[in-house]
């Protein structure tokens, strides 16, 4: 299949490009090489046979050119990070939502009917919680007074008692709690509108915490795994926010690339106008503190320091139920937490 891969020079995008090529697909990458993500400005290193187009997904003529001859689009291009300040909103909406709208409009004109969209677990806000008295509940916004006092666990909004975190599945209501999350919800909604209007087929892959070789470093977009790994490489102790008990699902970038492949190859079997969402997580729950400790131990560095600092836009717990992706598309993660973190402690980062 001929595939347009937007954002294909990035951390996840380049891994997807390698996997698609290995599976025999013909790949055309469109990437703006924005300085915040690609500070060197050098052309990306992509697999042999990949066609590279330097251009912005927000530019109509560029996108129309990039779509010529393709049968499907794998849309990875996005501005990532939390976007804690509302001053960030125009940039996130411009990159993520305007870019997606331009792409979808061009796909409709070119009659390209298949889309795999890189989504994110951030659309859920806080994860799944249950109260011993009131059952499943959605915690309210985190309060500065509680966080300042070191009360990081969200209480039951009805009785104030502690909540038990659990896995969130694709049926959960969307509850974006920062600017980036709101832009990812909008991307999904735009894709849904496109699918109905253009008889397209959409698969949304809601990534959980992706890590692995080639993550960017020293940018506002570096994930916490990259930040910790860079600290270990400098001989510093990783600095862990809150109390380190935040629960996450860390999934290796190779497994995310595999999820893109199986999603792409299953699209043709779907009904026109359909949208299907899948969580992409390892199925293994670990805390931020555990991840920092694993990287420090594997890298021979100092033990993590728990700072008690926080970011108001962060959520406390968000972990995936990826059973739908396993059952419907046969996807299985192949990299364990222990093996992945041990290798990542010594893996090169982008910008090193």
Overview of the molecule:
- The chain is α/β, with parallel strands linked by helices and 352 residues long.
- It contains ten helices and 15 strands.
- It has helices at residues 11-22, 60-66, 89-110, 144-148, 179-198, 224-233, 253-266, 288-299, 323-329, 337-344, and strands at residues 2-6, 26-31, 51-54, 72-75, 114-120, 128-131, 135-137, 164-166, 201-207, 209-211, 239-240, 247-252, 275-280, 285-287, 305-306.
- The strands form four sheets. A seven-stranded parallel beta sheet has the order 3-2-1-4-5-9-13, sandwiched between helices.
- A hairpin with a 3-residue loop joins strand 6 (128-131) and strand 7 (135-137).
- Helix 3 runs parallel beside helix 5 (179-198) and helix 8 crosses helix 10 (337-344).
- The mean pLDDT is 92.
The radius of gyration computed from the alpha-carbon positions, rounded to a whole number of angstroms, is 20 Å
Which structural class fits the helix and strand makeup?
alpha/beta
Overall helicity = 25-40%
Strands ordered across the widest β-sheet: 3-2-1-4-5-9-13
C-alpha termini separation: 34 Å
Poorly predicted ranges (pLDDT <50, ≥5 residues)?
none
Strand element count: 15
Helix-strand pattern: EHEEHEHEEEHEHEEHEEHEEHEHH
Large-scale geometry = globular
């Amino acid at each position: 299949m001929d595939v347009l891969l937007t954002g294909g020079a990035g951390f996840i995008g380049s891994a997807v490009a390698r996997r698609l090529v290995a599976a025999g697909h013909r790949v055309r990458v469109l990437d703006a090489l924005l300085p915040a993500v690609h500070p060197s400005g050098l052309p990306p290193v992509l697999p042999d046979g990949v066609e590279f187009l330097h251009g912005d997904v927000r530019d109509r003529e560029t996108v129309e050119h990039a779509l010529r001859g393709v049968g499907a689009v794998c849309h990875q291009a996005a501005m990532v990070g939390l976007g804690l300040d509302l001053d960030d909103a125009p940039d996130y909406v411009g990159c993520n939502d305007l870019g997606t709208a331009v792409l979808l409009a061009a796909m409709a004109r070119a009659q390209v009917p298949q889309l795999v969209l890189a989504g994110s677990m951030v659309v859920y806000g806080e994860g799944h919680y249950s109260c011993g008295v009131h059952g499943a509940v959605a915690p309210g916004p985190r309060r500065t007074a509680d966080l300042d006092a070191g009360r990081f666990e969200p209480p039951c909004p009805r009785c104030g008692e502690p909540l038990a975190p659990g896995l969130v599945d694709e049926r959960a209501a969307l509850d974006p709690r920062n600017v980036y999350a709101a832009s990812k919800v909008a991307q999904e909604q735009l894709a849904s509108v496109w699918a109905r209007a253009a008889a397209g087929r959409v698969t949304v892959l809601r990534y959980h915490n992706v890590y692995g070789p080639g993550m960017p470093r020293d940018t506002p977009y570096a994930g916490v795994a990259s930040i910790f790994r860079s600290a270990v490489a400098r001989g510093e102790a990783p600095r862990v926010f809150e109390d380190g008990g935040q629960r996450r699902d860390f999934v290796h970038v190779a497994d995310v690339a595999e999820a893109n492949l199986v999603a792409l190859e299953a699209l043709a079997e779907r009904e026109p106008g359909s949208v299907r969402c899948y969580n992409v997580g390892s199925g293994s729950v670990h805390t931020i503190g555990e991840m920092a400790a694993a990287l420090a131990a594997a890298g021979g560095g100092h033990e993590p320091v728990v700072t008690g600092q926080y970011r108001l836009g962060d959520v406390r717990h968000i972990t995936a139920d990826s059973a739908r992706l396993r059952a419907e598309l046969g996807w299985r993660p192949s990299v364990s937490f222990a093996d992945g973190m041990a290798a990542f402690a010594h893996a090169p980062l982008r910008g090193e």
